[in-house]
Amino acid sequence: MLSDKIQKKCDGLFIFTTNKRNIHRIYIVLVELKGTDIYTAFQQLESVNNCCEYKKIIEHFNSKRLKVIEKSFIVTNAKVSPRLQQDKLEKSFGIKVDIRTSAQTKAKALNLRKYLNLL
């Protein structure tokens, strides 16, 4: 998605669509997989949020008058940061992030659709 090799990037961008009660929603989800360095994960998500290509994706769906919902996730194998620390990072970087641990599931992969109410 990002053409700049120097710019920090997140690990994935996913687009989900739903149509509940004739309300069409587009979920644009950024995902960063991280061991313990949550600060760097915030940097990477912020970098993508501010990049031109990402903004063009958002504008594309907004121009079609669809309800666009942006979400950012950090999936970590570390203990989840205390809420106060997470709030401080969110305020500092200007993004809202849902932090999940890979230990929260017995499956090999964490299904983030569950946290978007898509299941």
Report on the architecture of this protein:
The protein is α/β, with parallel strands linked by helices. The protein has one domain (12-116). It contains three helices and four strands. Strands 1-2-3-4 form a four-stranded mixed β-sheet. The longest helix has 12 residues, at 38-49. It is globular, with a radius of gyration of 15 Å.
List the helices and strands and how they pair.
Elements: E1 12-20, E2 23-34, H1 38-49, H2 52-63, E3 67-76, H3 83-93, E4 98-101
Parallel strand pairs: 2-3, 3-4
Antiparallel strand pairs: 1-2
Q: In summary, what is this structure?
A:
The chain is built from three helices and four strands. It is α/β, with parallel strands linked by helices. It has a four-stranded mixed β-sheet with strand order 1-2-3-4.
What brief labels describe this structure?
alpha/beta; 119 residues; 3 helices; 4-stranded mixed sheet; globular; 4 strands; 29% strand
Strand proportion: 25-35%
Order of helices and strands: EEHHEHE
Q: Tell me about the biggest sheet? A: 4 strands, mixed
Instruction: Give the total of domains.
Output: 1
Secondary-structure-derived class? alpha/beta
Shape: globular
Q: Count all strands and give the number.
A: 4
